[in-house]
Structure formats: C-alpha cells, structure tokens
Design brief:
homodimer; 337 residues; alpha+beta; 7-stranded mixed beta sheet; two-stranded antiparallel sheet; 11 helices; 14% strand
Chain lengths: 337, 337
C-alpha cells in the first residue's frame, strides 16, 4: 500500500482515540516512517497497543506538555504522559533552535513514551546542518553484565552529522547483540543462535533459540555493551527525571500506568571549531574510509545511515507491505466509532 | 617500587628532555597513574617513546598552548604539538570551570598527542560533581566494517557520573574486541584467539594469533562497533581540527611529524533537571542493578569504574612492578645528561 494512503488511515484512527489533529499528524508520520525505513517492529505493529493505551488513558491523549527553560542552551520538557512522538518532536525542534543560537543545546524529556526510532529525531537536526546525539531508555530487555535477569532496555546510542551530501551519517545502534524478533524467527525455524547472544532461564549461555526466549538477551561485547546500556539509562532516565533502573514499563505487557520513558537530545553546530571546513573535512573522512580495500564479498563500505536511506527511498516508491494480522487490526480500529 | 619514588625519577627524566617543571609534573603524574590503575600499556612502557619524540621535537617540549573562547560554554584549545597530557589537563579543567558556570561545556583540543587514559580526565570532572564525556582518537588499529585495512584507532568512549559514594561511575571502553597486547600474548603462548576478533592479512577471519598480528583487529559487534569508532573519530578529529580518517600518527612507529591527536570533553551538571535528587536517583539506580540475581560464579555486579578503583587502591599500597626491559630504559634515560 502507498504510504500516504495508510498514513491517512492511521491519522484518522489516532484522532478517534482522542489525539488532536496535530498530534495525530505527528504520530502517524513517525509510525509510517518506521515502515518506510524497514523497521516494522517500530511501525504499524504498535498501532493497536498505542490505541489501547490511549483508550485506558495511560497514554494521555490531551497532554499539557510543559517546557521549562533552564538557560538559552538547556531546556526540560515534561511530556505529561502523552504519546512519545509528540514530546520528542517538540524536544528536538527546541534543541535545534537553541543550538542554532548558542552553538550547543541540551533538551531532557521526562514522562514520555516510546518515540519510534531515534534516527528520526537525529535526521531533523542533521537536515538543519547540526551534529546530534539522541539517547532514550526502554523497557527491560537485556541483562546487565553478571546478572541473569533483564533490566536495561535495548537503549540505543544515536549520533548524526551532516556529510555534505544528501545522505546524512546517522548511527542508531542498540546495545543488544541481536533483537528479540530474530531470536523468535530462529526458534520458529529451529535454527541455532550464536553463542554469547543470550542466556537461558538459569543464566547459562545458550545457542537454543527457544531456551533463549525464556531467558535473557545479552549486551554487545559483554562488560562494554553493558556499560554503554547503563550510560544510556543514566543519561535518559536518571538525569531527566524519567523512570530508570528497569522501571520503564513495557508498553505491550504492562498497563498499570504510563511508561515514563526519558529522552535526551544534545545538539551542536559542526562549525564551532573548524568553521566552514567541517563539510570539507567530513567529506574527506568518509571518502578515505570508503576507498579502503574491502574484504571478499563486500561491494561498498557503507557509513551508518546509508542503509536506512536506501530502504526508505525504495519503499517510498514500492509502498508498504502490511502483514495480514496487522491489517486486520487496522481495519478493526478504523471501524471503531 | 613505590609510586612516588618512580614518579620523581620520571619527572626528572621529562625535565631532562626539556619539559617545564609544571609540564613534567603533570606528565609524570598521569604516566604513573596508568601503572597504578593496572594499565601498564599506557604507563612507563611509553616513557622512552615520549623522550624520543621530545628529543626530535615532534613533541614540542615548550608548547605555546592557545585557548580560544567561543562562548561561555565552548572553547577550542590548540595544543601546539606538546605532550598530550598537558593540553588535555588544561582542557578538562577549563571544561569543569565552564560547566560549573553555565551548566554545560564543550572543549575541543587539536594538535595534541596520546593523553593516557580517558578515565583520568573523566575522574576530575566527576570529583567536582559533574557528568562527563571524553572522546579521543588514536592511530589506526581496527578495520572499519567491510574493510580489511586498519584505520580507526581503538577510539575509546568514556563517560563518568558522580554516584554519591567515593567510587565514581566511569565507563572507559575501547571499541576493539580485545587489545593487541592480548593477541601478542596468545601468539607467544600458542593459544588461539576467539573468532570475530581479528582478520588475517588476506581479510579472512582467523583464530590464529600470529596470523591476526599480521592482519587487523575488528571492532566490537561488527557494524555497530565500527559505527561507534567512526563517531569518535568524527567528534575528536573532524570536529576539533585534529587529524582524522587514519591520519593520527603512531607514536611508536612514525617519527615523520607530530601525532595531531584530537580530544573532546563535554561536561554537564547532574542537577540540571532533577536538582538535588540526582544523587538519590543514581544511588537507587546502582543499588537496583547490584541487587539483581547473578549468574553462576559472579560474586558482585560491578559498575564501570569499580574495577579500576580497586586496582588503584591495591597498587598504591603494594607499589608498581616494573618489567626488566623497561627498568633498563628508565636507567638509561636517567643517565642522559
């Protein structure tokens, strides 16, 4: 289906569940974008969940989002338990504005929810010719190093910079080795998973996908990845006033209250120290790395962001493929009066 | 040997090689600290190299370090090719001062050199009750994802925060799977190295340590770690005006000119958004994670910085063990007139 058609339907559904026209526009835009970049786990598969939470008012459909100015560079946003996309959208736009004025800006957001992909916010800053870091925490998914119980979210580290060409450099990497979806697929197909990816429920390393599903996922690179996940939890949770330390609620499973996810945006001007040369320098950097001798089977050395960009362009033309069960959900939600 | 005794000797040696008393003090302090925290590869093993570079004036013994104020939050330092410790020491102290005033600060340093461990600088900020990120680039050591040639340095990501107790949370993680030293040891002992750690000179994955030494090391977690290393090169090299894209010179092998390493310090106040509650929140965060059920064989879940802290305390009492060949070097350097 063409993305603009499905977006129209999703927007209508969000409005049925009491989002304002503007908030429904923002939320449907980000949701469809996840489909377009080939991240369906962050896309339409979440629509039903958002609507259920809106209906139960644990996502506040009419949030009074408060913006507190700390300085000309720093601001604190209280998302008032509204849908994550909206508070984050306000946050990144404010961070961009402040960074343009002062060179560097920091926006912290609390009482928010799942906001889709960090790269969507990073992209906005990069398109305004800025460097950006985005941090967000998430419900428990991976075990801290040494533990057999999940606590950290997949806690992505996201970084973006202008490149001097149309495709921005956007690294958006979770700190889990492989995502749960891939383990589910392996379990279905009876495939083994690599060692070091997950523990069984007794805390033993396993290559059995089914056992892994009952256990926990592991962070990348052991102590290193665990430390990075911890860092992201501190920056987006402890610092901002949001939930942290495993307290962010799972939006699919836990309807006992709002998620209270935290986000943190740090934005800066790339020309602070080298002036206009920044673009020449980053071009040269990327060119040098792309020219390196490649290992067998590799056609091109890609920089982060290139893959997502080409999937986006392809899907813009091709349209979005919606799974049958999700299509059913959308039809049902659209039929709600 | 007791650390203060050896520090005195090292300081004297640095002065023989024309460092000012103050710069010799700073440099010997950081060098000995690397030994004390159990990172000898960043310690006395580098003294001879520093002296050779000072003698050849590719480390400028009398740098005119220039500080350019960009705003009350932002500064740019030109290290004038002096020894890395000194420019970085000035940089972190300035970043601390500015963050105390404005809530957030950014200091970029170019024309610097290897500065020891990032955690030394992070620690200074944390001890002043601040949150800190340190980035630095380094000579080529690991291959970008898809390439068979090394280009990125081990490019550490370093993050620190106060914890409300005496041991700061300091994550200081390189983005290589294991360091070259460990591969060297495996080669000597005829041990295999894990798959996914290194490529041979033909770009093929290898578990043979000797072949790995002729090839390249790999980043943690494939594309993810490669992206993180790239991010650090951009933040500490492209942004600051320092060398980048594999141009940082290897201090041991390349005497054709100064290294031109870049560093970036970002410092912020932890109480910006949650006021005095920050310490209560971070304590609670750490306590929650420490209380998680542990996997078999794990005594305690450690937070980043605890390990280095206990080694430091132990070595302060026990003294530093200096390898024979390095002791010979020190004696020779001390005999220079």
């Amino acid at each position: 289906m063409k993305h603009f058609k499905i977006k129209k339907i999703v927007k209508k559904i969000f409005k049925k569940f009491k989002l304002s026209d503007k908030h429904a526009e923002i939320s449907s835009e980000y949701l469809i974008k996840a489909e377009l970049v080939g991240a369906p786990s962050h896309g339409l598969a979440r629509l039903k969940m958002y609507c259920e939470r809106l209906k139960k008012k644990i996502i506040n459909p009419k949030p009074k989002i408060k913006i507190k100015k700390i300085s000309s560079s720093i601001a604190h946003i209280d998302g008032n338990d509204g849908i994550g996309f909206v508070a984050a959208d306000i946050g990144i736009k404010l961070a961009i504005k402040n960074a343009k004025k002062t060179g560097i800006s920091l926006v912290a957001i609390k009482n928010s929810g799942h906001y889709g992909l960090s790269s969507f916010y990073a992209e906005q800053a990069v398109n305004k010719n800025l460097i950006v870091f985005c941090f967000t925490n998430a419900p428990p998914a991976i075990a801290p190093y040494g533990s057999k119980k999940k606590l950290f979210g997949t806690n992505p580290i996201c970084f973006g910079t202008p490149t001097g060409n149309k495709i921005p450099f956007i690294l958006d990497t979770s700190v889990s080795v492989i995502n749960r979806g891939k383990i589910r697929v392996a379990a279905k197909l009876g495939h083994k998973i690599p060692l070091g990816v997950a523990l069984d429920k007794f805390g033993k390393p396993t290559t059995d996908a089914k056992r892994a599903l009952k256990g926990v996922q592991l962070p990348i690179a052991g102590f290193r990845g665990s430390g990075l996940a911890w860092m992201v939890d501190i920056m987006s949770g402890v610092l901002t006033g949001a939930n942290h330390g495993g307290k962010v609620k799972d939006p699919f499973d836990d309807f006992s209250g709002p998620q209270n996810v935290g986000h943190l945006f740090l934005v800066l001007k790339p020309n602070l120290f080298v002036g206009k040369n920044y673009i020449r320098r980053i071009r040269q950097n990327i060119r040098t790395i792309k020219k390196l001798p490649k290992i067998k089977g590799v056609q091109e050395i890609l920089y982060p962001g290139q893959g997502i960009n080409s999937r986006y362009k392809k899907n813009l033309k091709k349209g979005i493929v919606i799974q049958k069960n999700i299509l059913e959900d959308i039809k049902k939600l659209n039929a709600v009066k």
